[in-house]
Amino acid sequence: MAKILVIDDETSIAVMIKKMLEKAGHEVEIALNGNDGLILFNKFHPELLITDIVMPEKEGLELIFELRRKNPDLKIVAISGGGRFQYEGYLTSAKHLGANMVFQKPLDHKEFMESISDLLIAKD
Amino acid sequence: MNFLKGKTINLLGLPSASQGLLTFNRLTLAFSGDMAVYEKDYLEDYFVKSLIPFRFSLILAMVFYGAFAFLDADTVPDLKEIFWFIRFGVVFPVLIGVFAFSYSRVFKRYMQFIISCIMFITGFGIIIMIILAATKENYSYYAGLILIFIFGYTFIRARFIYSSISGWLIVVAYEISAIWISDTPINYLINNNYFFISANVIGMFISYFLELSSRNDFYMRKLLQLEQEKVQIANNALEKRVRERTEQLTNANQNLKKEIETRKKYEVERAELETQLFQLKKMETIGTLAGGIAHDFNNILTPILGYTDMALEELPEESTLKFDIEQINSAATRGKDLVQQILTFSREVNFDKKPIQLNLIVVEVLNLLKPSLPPGIEIRQSLEQDIGTILADSTHMHQIIMNLCTNASYAMMQSGGILEVKLDVIKVDNKLAKQITNLKKGNYIRLIISDTGHGMDSKTKERIFEPFFTRKEVGSGSGLGLSVVHGIVNNYDGAITVDSTLGKGTSFTIYLPQFGTSLLNQDELNKTLKKGHEYILFVDDEQEITYMGKKMLENLGYKVTIKSDSLSALEEFKSDPMKYSLLVTDQTMPKMFGTELAARMKEIRPEMKVIIITGYIDKLSEDLLTKNGISEIIMKPIVLSDFSKVIRKVLDEN
């Protein structure tokens, strides 16, 4: 049972991930952009952050970088649709900036849930 | 006085010493002043023109001199023998001798002197006849001298000075003979002198004007010749200028033609480069557009797959909705695969570059392909071993070769044929680099995949690398494969070309920059392969990969059992847990992940060793691997040498 914050500018995706995680028994909050996500993070204090990368106002990479500096124990998962114009993978960049795991959209539901579960267990 | 003198002479009709530009000595008539240089030419010319008339006049002189012999017989019959001796015994031999001498080369030098001697000799002969005839009181032979003057001053071609000297010598000789020797009566003497001296003077004038006329004529001819020479020189100079100018124009014309040809060539090259550039930009634009579309599609597919996955979890087995939702999920999964290809094409894929031996990947792909090829298709391979390495993502190479081989087999599906794969190293020079876009001078590994299928026309060939362009039937392919191949090859700074003839077949040639040249030869490669004899359980949901895995492992000496289903693999293991020393399993499988399979086996036998094979290393964290007791991970596609080393290492671990 963990507190998870999901940030994605696509409402349908954020809601879907929330539903998946709540089915697994977690407490989930969602934000639709990086700035709101940051505000919610400070209020909600989640153990796990699942964030999209390409978002308006504040990009996921910037968010990961900021939060990783301030919260070394925070578990971060980055998800991405692949980006539009960058040739270097966003996901690789996310890993370099401190994400524990990265997933390419569209998500493989089973694989995603298993990995999240393993990640949450890992440092217990 | 000089002025009057000149006027007086002109009024008399006598020539002045300077007739226009013609200057001469008034007495000898020789050219003087500026004309003096032509005197020698004139004398030469006069000789040449005079020689034949001179010979004719000698013959004529002999005729007349001889004809008067009849007169001798009539007028002085007592003296005819002496007279005939003079004519035929003296004069005639002289004339004949001169005639013969006239053919000699040295005659020219003495001609005028000889002519004047002839004149004098013939005249002197007459004088002797006059002296002898006077003894018979015949004073008429002086008339013969007049004939001599006529001949000497006109016919015989003596120049004025020579003939004049001879003429006056004859006059003097006559006077001496007439006055002192023959004692001619005074009245006859005066009478004869009137005619005789008048004839000499007239003869002199005639000779003078004849020579002057001849000199004038020569002068005119010389002037004409000089003018002609000037004209010729001018002509020659003009011709030379014309020739030079023509040559200049011809050269300019040729240079112009060459320049035109060069420009045309450049225009053609430019047009080709523009076409290539346009094509590249088009592909880049399509790539960028496709990348954008792919990104948005991923976001659309994510909830579709997510919700259908969740719904499938919740729905009971017997639910009628299950099948429908599975179809939705399956379609969305295919969409996901298509998006992946688009991302690859639009360069949105992370490359995991490392030095790889392309020939090994070719062998793997061909082994995978063989079982699925329709009958009638023969595979031929010509793979050089010592080609070095390329720096590339092995997944991409696998994808490229598989794509091209699949296309080739598709082209031969109806009537069979030969799929040929060649691999070698080529040194690209400047000439080849110019012909193929993206190619630079250097060493490249060249892969040629060709078929003897239906081939394609030129229009199809032009568009073959465009995304979504396909000649296949609907449902047989999205048309992205070659655009993906093209995109991958370009990203490795390589190049791909296609050659095809409709009805005969197609050949794709890929150039990839050679990374390293040092390469293990087959013997050394064999030495690096680690072998063993243990029992291995190989699990992968793709049957072709299980066959390939079995073949690889058995070649290494291991005994292999393959399963394409994780549950049946678990059952196999349970039937004899101690049999297998190693589990090699794919990670992503339906029903049970590889990690989960490993965990279940380890519950039965904790020391069981496990190797996971996956294409998605990002998904597997170290903690996950440690928790499930995974010894090693191997990335797809499997490279034999790495595979053998990892297996041996894991088996040898305690």
What topology does this entry show?
The complex is a heterodimer of chains A (124) and B (654).
Chain A: E1 3-7, H1 11-23, E2 27-31, H2 34-44, E3 48-52, H3 60-70, E4 75-80, H4 90-97, E5 101-104, H5 109-122
Helix pairs in contact in A: 3-4
Chain B: H1 2-11, E1 18-19, E2 22-23, H2 39-67, H3 69-75, H4 80-101, H5 107-134, H6 143-155, H7 160-181, H8 186-314, H9 321-345, E3 354-356, H10 358-369, E4 377-383, E5 389-392, H11 394-411, E6 417-428, H12 430-435, E7 442-451, H13 458-463, H14 481-491, E8 495-501, E9 505-516, H15 522-528, E10 535-539, H16 543-555, E11 559-563, H17 566-575, E12 582-586, H18 594-604, E13 609-614, H19 622-627, E14 632-635, H20 640-652
Parallel strand pairs in B: 4-6, 10-11, 10-12, 12-13, 13-14
Antiparallel strand pairs in B: 1-2, 3-5, 5-9, 6-7, 7-9, 8-9
Helix pairs in contact in B: 2-4, 4-5, 5-6, 5-7, 6-7, 6-8, 7-8, 8-9, 9-14, 10-11, 10-16, 11-14, 17-18
Across the major sheet of chain A, the strand order is 2-1-3-4-5
Tell me the number of helical segments of chain B per DSSP (H or I, 4 or more residues long): 20
- Distance separating the two termini of chain B: 154 Å
Which two chains form the greatest contact, residue counts included? Answer: A-B, 41 and 35 residues
Residues in β-strands, percent of chain A: 15-25%
> How helical, in percent, are the residues of chain A?
40-55%
Uncertain ranges of chain B: 1-12, 519-523
Specify the biggest β-sheet of chain A.
5 strands, parallel
Instruction: Give a quick account of the main beta sheet of chain B: strands, pairing sense, barrel closure.
Output: 7 strands, mixed
Structural class of chain A: alpha/beta
Radius of gyration of chain A: 13 Å
Q: Tell me what portion of residues of chain B adopts beta-strand conformation.
A: 5-15%
The H-and-E topology of chain A, N to C, reads as EHEHEHEHEH
What is the CA-CA span between the terminal residues of chain A?
Answer: 12 Å
Helix fraction of chain B by DSSP (H/I, runs of at least 4):
55-70%
Low-confidence stretches of chain A: 84-88
Structural class of chain B: alpha/beta
Assembly type of the chains comes to heterodimer
Coarse morphology of chain A: globular
The counted number of beta strands of chain B is 14
Report the C-alpha radius of gyration of chain B, rounded: 64 Å
